[in-house]
C-alpha cells in the first residue's frame, strides 16, 4: 500500500513551526503518513510572494504577533520567548544541516525541533556554527561531519530547490503543509489538514 505524503515547508526561524511541530508528528503517526521535511529560505519566499519580514512590518502587526503567540502558548501549554535575544538570524546553515541529516537518514523531526527550541526557548544564536555544533553534539550527532555535509553544493542546491518548490506550490509563509496538492498555511490549520487526510482515507476505503 502506498504511504501518503505531507510536504512540510518551514523556516528554521519559525516560532509557529515550533508550536506546531509535535502536533504535526502526532498527526502523521495517527494516519501513517510520511512527512517530507523541506526547510526553505523564507526571506526569499517573501520577496517572491509579496510578504514582509517581521522587522519591516508595522508596529501594530508586530504587537499582534506577540499577542497571538502568547494566546497559542497558553492554549498549547508551550512556553517560548516571544522576543528572543537572537531574533530570526540567518538560518541557511541550520536549514542545510537539517537537509543533510535527512539525507543521512537521521531523525529530522527531533533535530529541527532542537534548533528551534534553542532559538525560541534558550536565547541561542542559531546562525552561529559553534551553536549549531553544540546542538548536534547534545543530540549525540557527529556535528563536524554533518556540518561539513551541510556545506556541500548538493545540499545547498537542495535548499534552493525546496524553496523554489515551495513557491511553486503556493507557499508564502511558515509553516506550510501540502497534502495531495492542497496547501494549508499555519499551525492553526493542522486540524483542517487532518480533516483532508480523513476524507481522503474514507474515499480510499469506500
Description:
- The chain is of the alpha+beta class.
- It has helices spanning 15-31, 42-49, 59-76, 92-103, 108-122, 129-138, 143-150, 153-168, 190-205, and strands spanning 5-10, 34-39, 176-179, 182-185.
- It has nine helices and four strands, in the order E-H-E-H-H-H-H-H-H-H-E-E-H.
- The longest helix is centred in the N-terminal third of the chain and has 18 residues, at 59-76.
- Belongs to the GST superfamily. NadH family.
Q: What low-confidence regions span 5 or more consecutive residues with pLDDT below 50?
A: none
Number of domains: 1
Q: In total, how many beta strands?
A: 4
Share of helical residues: 55-70%
Major β-sheet annotation: 4 strands, mixed
Give the strand line-up of the largest sheet.
2-1-3-4
CATH fold descriptor: Glutaredoxin
